[in-house]
Write a structure and sequence with these properties.
This protein is an all-alpha fold.
């Protein structure tokens, strides 16, 4: 029992520090982009990567630890969707954007970073507070609904970034390799194939996530309605309010349903 408590304490402490570092990094990126946009206008979008690219690469590199968290069992998420999301971001950030200076000056890089950091700030804030047992209804709502409009926009921004990078990969020959027996790897063709798989995979992932979200949400709402009905059948004692006799409070319900939905399929 003692060793279990010590393990849980150390695990929660480590996860809290990890989520806090990620939250601070993505918050700094988003704040920097916002301040620079209001200070310099559209000109700030051109050199977005030069201003925050290093911190963005560090945050995305550190996020690879989440695969280890899932494998060892300290983070109850699904491995495959998280692996696909991290792989996609690594390809876009390090292969497509970092390797081509011309792409770094495109407006789509700024837009893509805004979408990524919005999702990550909400996700890491929720995860950080959940580790210490804190839950807010507004944060619950944001963490479960914000990805619905932003996720398709992220896919479009990523696809547009790949599309704009194709001419530069064709002219520079980056990552294109000659092989024996008159064979070659032409990287623009690889990107075009990845672009097609991106839309198909993201569409299936979005459908699966949406179905899982609504299924768990309706299940928890039905459970709450049934529990509330049972509580109303119980007689009052000494002037106690029915809300105090309910099996779970609103915050507890939000925390339970949020955990079920969030861990059902992480986007």
């Amino acid at each position: 029992m003692v060793f279990s408590c010590i393990y849980r304490y150390r695990k929660n402490t480590y996860l809290f520090i990890y989520y806090l570092i990620q939250f601070c990094g993505h918050s700094w990126i988003f704040t920097n982009m916002t301040v620079r946009f209001f200070s310099f206008g559209e000109d700030s979008m051109v050199d977005t990567f030069y201003a925050i690219g290093l911190v963005m690469r560090v945050c995305q590199s550190i996020s690879l630890l989440e695969l280890l968290h899932i494998c060892v069992g300290i983070e109850p998420n699904h491995l495959l969707p998280r692996f696909l999301q991290l792989t996609e971001r690594i390809i876009i950030l390090f292969v497509v954007i970092t390797s081509q200076e011309e792409v770094q000056e495109k407006y789509v890089v700024c837009v893509l970073f805004i979408f990524w950091n919005l999702l990550d700030m909400v996700r890491y804030t929720y995860s950080m507070l959940s580790v210490i047992g804190i839950s807010y209804a507004v944060l619950t709502w944001l963490s479960q609904t914000l990805w619905m409009p932003i996720y398709p926009l992220c896919v479009l921004a990523e696809a547009f970034a790949i599309y704009q990078s194709l001419p530069y990969f064709e002219s520079s020959g980056t990552y294109s390799t000659e092989l024996p027996f008159d064979l070659a790897i032409y990287f623009p063709y690889v990107l075009k194939m990845y672009l097609m798989m991106l839309f198909i995979g993201k569409w299936l992932l979005f459908l699966h996530s949406s179905c899982a979200f609504w299924f768990v949400l309706l299940s928890t709402l039905a459970e709450r309605s049934a529990n509330t009905g049972e509580a109303e059948k119980e007689p009052r004692h000494d002037g106690l309010d029915l809300a105090s006799k309910a099996p779970r409070s609103y915050n507890a319900f939000c925390r339970t349903s949020q955990d079920q939905i969030y861990h059902c399929f992480t986007v």
